């Protein structure tokens, strides 16, 4: 039962990063203006390529998380999931400290829940 919950949280974190990819790569000058209201409106167009680069990294995180669920070995599946969830957690902590605490809540906290669930599977 715990492993399926860990997998569900991993999928949710991956989907969240797919959303970040879309927002930063394809909707930076449209939808992102509404999502990032505190970001200066006059900077969206000049930072479009920078945001797209960030989106690409979020896509890599999502791909790694999805990949972890396709690995047939339970040990390797959990190890890969943990690696990518830790990457997400570190990014969430960094964003929370340097930009806004909201970043930690949206990005880091779900990753932390996933990490704890995967660790509980490994040590039961």
Automatic annotation (TrEMBL):
Top-rank taxon, per record: Bacteria
Pfam families attached to this UniProt entry: DUF1304 (PF06993)
Protein name: DUF1304 domain-containing protein
Keywords from the UniProt entry: Membrane, Transmembrane, Transmembrane helix
Transmembrane feature ranges: 56-73, 80-97, 103-121
């Amino acid at each position: 039962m715990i492993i399926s919950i860990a997998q569900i949280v991993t999928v949710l974190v991956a989907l969240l990063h797919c959303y970040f990819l879309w927002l930063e790569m394809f909707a930076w000058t449209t939808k992102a203006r509404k999502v990032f209201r505190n970001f200066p409106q006059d900077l969206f167009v000049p930072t479009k390529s920078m945001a797209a680069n960030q989106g690409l990294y979020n896509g890599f995180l999502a791909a790694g998380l999805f990949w972890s669920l396709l690995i047939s070995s339970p040990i390797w599946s959990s190890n890969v999931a943990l690696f990518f969830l830790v990457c997400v957690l570190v990014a969430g902590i960094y964003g929370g400290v340097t930009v806004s605490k909201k970043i930690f809540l949206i990005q880091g906290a779900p990753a932390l829940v996933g990490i704890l669930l995967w660790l509980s599977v490994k040590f039961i």
